[in-house]
């Protein structure tokens, strides 16, 4: 699972090109290198189910697109691979570069927690602050072990916890008119 490097150096986007193509996921947040191994089956199922629901809604409404694990290149020291994103059609045209990476914040970012203190710190602290600073409008933090979803929404200039949804609740969003998905369906 994700681990902090013990180096004190500041990593950049150029450094990512020098890392091995070994199946690990390499991300940089505030110059800190984060390395993740292949996630648990439950983690991946939650990603697939949420992306499928967002994709079906997007296809029906033609309002945007959902994707699993896209590269988001915010700058030289902030390059991440969120588990799932949703981007409106108009915004996608502006922020998608020729290499197929997002170069600015998608409206919605979903991260599914992996076990371990470093992983929790990465998603609850580092990435929450990054997404907040970069203009993400909504952040869903999914805990497949506890079967709950924390919904953070932009209030003024930052993301704030708006709701903690449990298995009996339904996931909705003002960003996604008419979207409704049972939280239990994420974990079924």
From TrEMBL:
Protein name: Glr2347 protein
Higher taxonomy: Bacteria, Bacillati, Cyanobacteriota, Cyanophyceae, Gloeobacterales
Residue stretches spanning the membrane: none
Putative restriction endonuclease domain residues: 15-183
PANTHER family on file: SLL0198 PROTEIN-RELATED, SLL1222 PROTEIN
InterPro entries according to UniProt: Nuclease_put_TT1808, Restrct_endonuc-II-like, Uma2
Pfam (any one): Uma2
Highest taxon, organism lineage: Bacteria
């Amino acid at each position: 699972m994700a681990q902090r490097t013990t180096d004190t150096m500041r990593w950049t986007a150029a450094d990512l090109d020098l890392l091995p193509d070994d199946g690990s996921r390499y991300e940089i947040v505030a110059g800190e290198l984060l390395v993740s191994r292949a996630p648990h089956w439950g983690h991946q199922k939650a990603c697939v189910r949420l992306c499928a629901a967002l994709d079906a809604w997007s296809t029906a409404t033609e309002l945007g697109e959902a994707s699993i694990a896209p590269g988001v290149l915010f700058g030289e020291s902030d390059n991440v691979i969120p588990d799932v994103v949703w981007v409106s059609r108009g915004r996608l045209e502006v922020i998608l570069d020729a290499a197929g990476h997002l170069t600015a914040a998608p409206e919605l970012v979903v991260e599914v927690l992996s076990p371990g203190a470093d992983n929790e710190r990465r998603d609850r602290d580092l990435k929450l602050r990054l997404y907040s600073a970069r203009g993400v409008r909504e952040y869903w933090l999914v805990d497949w072990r506890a079967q709950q979803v924390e919904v953070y929404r932009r209030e003024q200039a930052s993301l704030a916890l708006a709701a903690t949804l449990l298995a009996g609740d339904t996931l909705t969003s003002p960003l996604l008119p008419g979207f409704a998905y049972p939280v239990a369906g994420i974990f079924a």
